[in-house]
Amino acid sequence: MQRYWIERVFQEAKQQLGLHQNQTRHWPAWQHHVALTMLALHFMLAAQLEGHETIPYLSFTSLKLMLAQKLQNLLHEDEALLAAVRKRAAYAAPKPTVKPPT
């Protein structure tokens, strides 16, 4: 059972954070790439767990968008940034199903 979770971590790191996109020539550079990718994965998972109460469906894509916009100063105010992330999370939330009348 432990191997499954380890494989899931590597799959997420490859899909979301580019673990597989390394172009290194030496072991120390490869080790730095893997360490930074795992550190970023840890940060994103911690942000998901911390923000679960306020934004329940916070995805890695939303976190990457939020960080990119914050770093580029596209959204100068934190409230505007949170509103954009909440809107994205509300769109990703599962929709309630309505039964047709019988």
Structure keywords:
102 residues, mainly alpha, 4 helices, extended, Transposase IS4-like domain-containing protein, RNaseH-like_sf
Biggest sheet statistics: none
The SSE order reads: HHHH
Helix content: 55-70%
Cα gyration radius (Å): 18 Å
Note the gap between the termini: 44 Å
Task: Summarize model confidence as the mean pLDDT.
Answer: 78
Proportion in β-strands: under 5%
Principal-axis shape: extended
InterPro entries: RNaseH-like_sf (IPR012337)
Protein name: Transposase IS4-like domain-containing protein
Structure description:
It is built from 4 helices and no strands. It is mostly helical and 102 residues long. The protein has a domain at 52-93. Helix 1 (2-17) crosses helix 2 (27-50) and helix 3 (60-71) packs antiparallel against helix 4. The protein is extended. InterPro entries: RNaseH-like_sf.
